[in-house]
Amino acid sequence: MKTEKVLLTGILFGMILFGIFSLLEIDPTYGGIVGAILVGIIIGKIADKTPVKYAVISIFTYNLIGWVTTFLFTLEGKTILGYGGGVTGVFLGFILIMTIFYSIIGSISAFVTYNMKTDKQD
């Protein structure tokens, strides 16, 4: 599958999961882990080559989009942004670290799924 389609599929699927987990008020840590695993599985199944790279880019992108929209359009996000540089910097640093953590988990999931797919074809 083409690179654009793999990335777009991963980002859209991740955004849908991010929204569902937010609406169901599931803890963001557990929701992020489950979402990263599911997106990694999807990308591992549809990617022709280098699924790890596609998984990292997709998961990082949809998490950044999701968290930015959460901060801009919710009362809690506006409150954190209103406190100033120190609190905002610490919280955004935490979000960045968690996004990298989710990307690693999703890339492992994509790698395993891709290897299982190629083993079946042999």
UniProtKB/TrEMBL annotation:
Keywords: Membrane, Transmembrane, Transmembrane helix. It comes from the Archaea. The chain crosses the membrane at residues 7-24, 30-47, 54-75, 87-114. This is DUF5518 domain-containing protein.
